[in-house]
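Appendix B: complex inputs.
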Amino acid sequence: MLLLSATVAVLLGTTLGLLIVTVASQRGAAREAFRSQEALITASRLQGSLVRIENGLRGFVASRRERFLEPAEGALDRYPRQLRRLDGLASGEPRQRRTLADLETRIEDYVALWALPLITLARDDPASARNVVISNEGRVRLAGIDGALDELATLKREVVRDNARRADRASTLAIGFGVGGLGLVLVVAAGVAVYLGRSVVRPVREVARATGRLAGGDLSTRVPAQREDELGDLARSFNEMADRLQVNRAELAARTEQLEHSNAELTRSNRELEQFASVTSHDLQAPLVTVAMYAELLERRHAKELGEGLELVDGIRGATGQARTLIRDLLDYSRAGREQPSLEAVPAGTVVEHALESLAGAIETAGARVEIEGTLPVVLADAAGLTRVVANLVGNAVKFVDGRAPEVTIGAQREGSWWRLWVRDNGIGMDPAHAGRIFEPFQRLNGEEHYAGTGIGLAVCERIVESHGGRIWVDTAPGRGSTFSFTLAPAIQHTAARAPAGVAGR
Amino acid sequence: MRGRPFAAPAGRALVTLAALMLALNGCGGGDPQATPSVQEARGEPIRIGTKNFTEQYLLGELYAQALRAEGFRVELKRDIGSSEIVHQALVGGGIDLYPEYVGVLLSEVAGVTERPDEDEAAYQLAKELEERNGFTLLAQTPFSDQNAVAVLPATAQREDVLALGDLARLRGEVTIGAPPEFASRFEGLEGLEEVYGVEDLRIDAMGIGLQYDALDDGQVDAAAVFTTDGRLAEGDYVILEDPRGLFASQRVAPVISQKVLRDNGPRLVETLDALNARLTTSVMREMNAEVDLRDREAADVAAEFLRTRAPGG
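Resulting structure:
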């Protein structure tokens, strides 16, 4: 590439140099031609001056009238300048110099040995002057001068002709060089273009195409990278990038696949687990029912024979009852996680009433007082699920007390785009550090010996609330009672005016 | 001076002065080579003019070559014209010296018609006249080339024309082949009329030398000639006698500017005087014949003369 550039530069430089030289020589020729033209014109004027002198003095000699001399006097003043000018315009060429020297001598002789003496003679002795004029020496001298001028003109014309020829040659040469140089430049430029196309544009285009293919997803695309220059570096960089991209993409695909696999596994195991719970619940129900039925029959038909054995039967009945409760709760729990709730606008007040009705026995037993604070809102919820949550929370509230009469308050509060429903009690409370665990299945903070239950109620509540998109938590402290809160979306028609956009549909 | 003055080049005065001082030194120290070498070095040539006929060409060549042989730089300007114009050129500064005929100088240049009979007296008068104007004459030649009128022998015999006065006898208009100035010269038509009472003369003006052929062809009745003309040597023409002395003796002397004479020192004078002393009538006529009859170049003839008759030989 460098060599090519240098060659082009040298060629261009040479062409330019030759052009400059030829143009200079042409200019020199033109200048010399101009000088020659000037010399010819000056020579012609000089000749005119001499003729004017000769004619003037002849007229004067013939007529003795001074006015005939006037043009001659003017010409006598002029001719030295014209001669000097001619001298200045003559080139240094020896023949020209010789001819010019001869011319100068002839002219000086004509003036000094003819014209001026004759004028003087004509004034002193007109008759003699007339006879002298007849001898025609002046004309002879002028003829000699004309000859010298002609020779000078011939020499000058030769110079002009030579110069014109030289200028023509120079022009032809210049045009030749110009055209040749131009052609050369075009050829070189074409060569450079082809070379560039071959060596630069094509590799770059290949990389560009490969990039397109790469972007289109063909990660196996590679470009040839044998070159040692920047284009080679480009190609290698591209290939490296493609390599990395391919590796990354492969890793990503592998991980995605792994993730999908584990996801599917998880889903499957979850489903199996739930199915297992469901099936287990049902399957366990049946023998328990059978056991309870036999215990009933035993008590009814063989009460006399059993005697004190009746306590045992009660024990069996109590145990099967507990087992059935446990199984039912488990079933609820698994169902609560599995089924999507069918959401509708539900008046929370109505739901709370239903829940309190189902708990009427427990409330009465505990001597509890349940109050509803303010007006409860209409929320978007599954009525059955919501009823169970409220019943569960209120049931806990009346259950976990330390001998005092339980006081339960139910209320609702707008918080942002949610309704927070809360159930507050005056019960035993709990350590806030463990408050999170109470929503896990079968976790019980308080002794089983004191409080009945399977320990699954709050887990079910959490599942239901979360299936509604809300969350559930507890604010509590030991001996200070607890406030269970959960959030629900407001029903559209009631809250549309106040609810932020995007809340609808929750 | 009514004529156009010739301004000498500025540098010339200095050259002249220097040359003069050296020339004076040369006189005192007796170094004969000093002057020519200076002349050569200073490069201010002596310009010799000549009139427009063969004898003048020869004299010009003789002067020029003799002076060059002595180391002088010389410019020879031949064929300037008749005495009238040549003398005017000398006065005007166009030339420094030229060979002139003493008689012509007196009659045609100075306008002296009453001329001394004696050659020496004429010479002294002419010299005196020239010296009044800043010029002078060098030594005159032994030979005399007088003006004359020649006719064909046939004419002389048939018409009995032997003297100038006899021309009046010729019938009708008499035509004389002559240079144009003959018409206005005392030693020409004026004198012929005045001295010999010849009238009805007409000049057929022609270049000097052509009149012999015109005479031969019958184009003219008579011809104005010079007595040293080569063509007269063969005896083909009859020179009319001049009993009343219209045509004065015409020995030749170089007319020279006194300034140039001073500038160039005694060697110039010595050289030209020595040369002139050797120019006898026979020598001159022979040389004229060499040129006019045998078509030789004046320069060659002069060179030959200078070579074969070296000074002191």
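Residues 141 and 279 of chain B are 6 Å apart (CA to CA).
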